[in-house]
Amino acid sequence: MLTEEERNEIEAIMGHYPLAAAAGIEALRIVQRHRRWISDATLCEVAEFLGITPTELDAVATFYNLIFRQPVGRHVILVCDSVSCWIMGYDNLLEKLKSRLNVDLGQTTSDGRFTLLPHVCLGACDRAPVMMIDDQLYGELDADKIDAILANYA
Ligand code: FES
Fold it and tell me: In the chain, which end has fewer C-beta atoms inside a 10 angstrom radius, N or C?
């Protein structure tokens, strides 16, 4: 069941959208903020609350790749793998992250602290290479900066 807090937050944004289905992404983002990821059961609850089918909502969730449909760690690292970042050192950055966290792309650390995911352009090409941890963007990265950045996340 959606919590009262989740319901209230979704209702608060529904007025901004002409159709309930259009509020789908934002509704899922709200619930994801509370639960970290969107299970099948949660997706059905949100769809029912919006008055649309789970299939309709799942199509939206699949299209928008920042809705996590599998469990993720406490913090999600999105590493940009688009062209500017690729040119500016994506390979070194990714190798550092993978070795430091002992995971591959798409995996979560054994302590549940981080999930490492690839992502298309994060919109900060002038600061390439770039990664995002939760809502915080980090640019002009090199492997030497990674340890200090990760230390900020419990
Ligand atoms: S290519 Fe990486 S932020 Fe645009």
Answer: C
Q: List the domain range (segments joined by +) for residue 91.
A: 75-150
* Average pLDDT score over residue span 81-99: 96
The helix (run of H) or strand (run of E) holding residue 60 is helix 54-63
| Closest ligand 1 atom, residue 80 Cα | 2
Give the containing element (helix H, strand E) for 3. none
DSSP assignment, residue 134?
A: T
Tell me what pLDDT residue 15 has.
86
Q: Do 87 and 54 share a domain, yes or no?
A: no
Q: Which atom of ligand 1 approaches the CA of 124 most closely?
A: 3
Q: What's the confidence (pLDDT) of residue 62?
A: 79
Q: Which residues pair with 137 in a beta bridge?
A: 132
Answer with the one of 63, 89, 104 that is the final residue of a domain. 63
Q: How far is the CA of 117 from the centre of ligand 1 (A)?
A: 14
Residues 15 and 57 in one domain: yes
